[in-house]
Amino acid sequence: MSNIRHPMSRRAGLAFAVLGEVRLWRDGVEVPLGPPRGRALLAALLLREGTPMGRDDILGGLWGDSFHVDGANLVQVYVSKLRRLLEPDRPPRAAASLLPRVGNAYRLAVEADQWDLGCFQRARTAARELRSAGELIESERVLGEALALWPGPALTGVEGPLLDVERVRLAELRLAATEEHLELALETGAEDDVIPSLLTLTREHPYRERLWALLMVALYRGSRQADALAAYRRAARALKDDLGLSPGPELRRIEEAILAGAPSTTLTARPRTGPVRPQHVPDRPKLTLVHGTGIGAAPSRRAAVPPYRARRLGDRR
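Given the sequence above, the corresponding structure tokens read:
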């Protein structure tokens, strides 16, 4: 585990993390969660975002077909342990307030600022609003801070059919936000700084057309027309050879603009209004390297600031 203090540990009261290892703090002090199955239960309840989770959903989502004892008792044992961690001062027979039973289900509701995913989603929304208002530099800063909440792959160290699905969903959420952040950096004139990250990302996600579009624009704005066209050819080859597809309209539009010698300042990677072409990714994508720490990489001991942003911050001092 990194020696860097987790942002959620600075919050008063209870705070939770799922973007990386599943963790719990009380007034800044980490609470040991015990075996992986207990951490998995906490993660599953958090990801329901206040919606009650039934016993059958818990059993199927965390154990699948692997449990061989009475299911109701098994769930009750883990719920009781989690309740003691959440409310250590609750009298033995007092009703649980943080993890109450609702029929045959259990409900854990936390405020958005009590867990890292809630903070991330709120910050991403704020960054989009800033971008719509034309505040690009501030939008980039806010989204960069949101991405810094991910010390590593979400739900590290917990297993279960439900969490396997959630892990893929959250990895996609992180990668989509990374694309937005790279685009913001590109829009604020950091094309030379984002190219290394985009080269890495397109190697790791060769069917991700949005990344190829950003790379082509960054290269073209950096006066590297031949490299931008070569990037298009690599994207087209990967799509055709592996998926039997042709590049989508956004990539074709950018290629045509480059071939026509369009002014680099007018060429953007933002798609035109219209249907969005779905992204094509493998069933179990290899989600690695985003900026300094990476999707799928071990947590860095340095702050999770994208390298292109770090350089630009240094330039402003």
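Strands lie at 14-17, 23-26, 29-30, 53-54, 101-102, 105-106. Try to locate this feature in the token string yourself.
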